[in-house]
Design goal:
The protein is mainly α. The protein has two domains: about 5-40, no CATH class; about 45-80, no CATH class. The protein is built from four helices and no strands. The longest helix has 21 residues, at about 55-75. It is elongated, with a radius of gyration of 25 Å. The N and C termini lie far apart (about 65 Å).
Length: about 80
């Protein structure tokens, strides 16, 4: 699909130079840049990556520390009135 976009002159000239240097058409450069942007900024991808990082194994590994901290806080605040 064809589309038209407006760019500041400097960005246009940098894109022209980069496409020429890479030996690809300007439209291919723009396509590659847009695909990368969408991959990095897609909320679904971000959520999936966070889920991979903080999977159940991650929590299980640190659960004893979390529980110890919670028990410590309970002990410290047991006489506090709220």
């Amino acid at each position: 699909m064809k589309t038209a976009i407006s760019l500041p002159d400097q960005i246009y000239y940098e894109a022209e130079e980069t496409a020429h240097y890479m030996g690809i058409p300007r439209s291919k450069l723009y396509l590659n840049a847009l695909v990368e942007y969408l991959k990095k900024n897609n909320r679904k991808n971000i959520t999936e990556k966070l889920n991979e990082i903080y999977n159940d194994d991650y929590y299980k590994e640190f659960e004893p520390f979390a529980n110890a901290s919670l028990e410590c806080m309970r002990e410290i605040t047991k006489n506090d009135t709220w």
